Amino acid sequence: MKLPRRNFLHLAAGAAALPAISRIARAQTYPTRTVNIIVAFPPGGPSEGVVRLLAEKLSLSLGRPVVIENRPGGAGGSVGTRSVVSAAPDGHTLLLSPPGPLVVAPLIYKNIGYDPIKAFTPIAALISIPQMLVVHPAVPAKSVQDLVAYAKANPGKISFPSPGYGTQPHLLGELFKLMAGIDIIHIPYKGPAAAVTDLLAGQVQMYFENIGSLLPHIEAGKLRALAVADEARSLQLPNVPTTVESGFPKLQATYWSGILAPADTPASIVNRLNTEINAIMKTKEMEAILAKLSARPKVGSPEDFSTFIAAETQKWAAVVKDANIKVD
What is the CATH number of the domain that holds 78? Predict the structure, then answer.
């Protein structure tokens, strides 16, 4: 039977609208089951307490369980990150990511299996923790300028650890090396714990790491703080100058983390999660956890987070290129 043209067009338009209607329906009923937040690293990272409280609070506000799943492995955390790329874009599988998988790994590793811009929809940034430069007490430097002078007088004798290639401590060390024109040696470790252990033992001499991780050792006199790699001084260490005050205004970095979803996740789901997460980050319970980490909440829109990731990528891409950082 041949349909009149008007009826045919109505049917065609209705068929074309089905995918959109389906997305809207999914968004209105979200979530329908457990929400998994994938962490591409082992338990115990700087965001551990934050993401645990976030999952607990999200479970209450969403009305469904929110579960943290650690999936470490691969270059720069690429194993867990790839698992989110291949997940359904329905808001039930999310990614908690620090800078590495989104910004640095794609710059220094070949074939990580995803394009960080095309593969994800940013939802919300969570935290920002300034990095700090410390030295072992045996190093005769009480300021950044002292350290530069000492390094120039002793080329190749200062080494700095990192939790691995492409981590922020690695990139900050390379940036410092370029800016100061000094010959210092990078030694990669498998995680921050081993790096700090050798630093405390004097096996390596200087280190960039987030303030929360270093603060107990600084307060115990086991490490000497030279500068906060930020524009503002730390409330916990008000007498320690910033890198800006120390003559290196571009030597800045913060450890940050945020929540993302697979690309094409409906905007209504993204916006709901953004609203819920921002509210949680402003609670008194979260404020107490952040204070222990010397961290600040990064409350903003999905667009704010996307813009921030793009700026971070541009900044560190220049450092990777200038320092010739690559992993074959």
Answer: 3.40.190.150
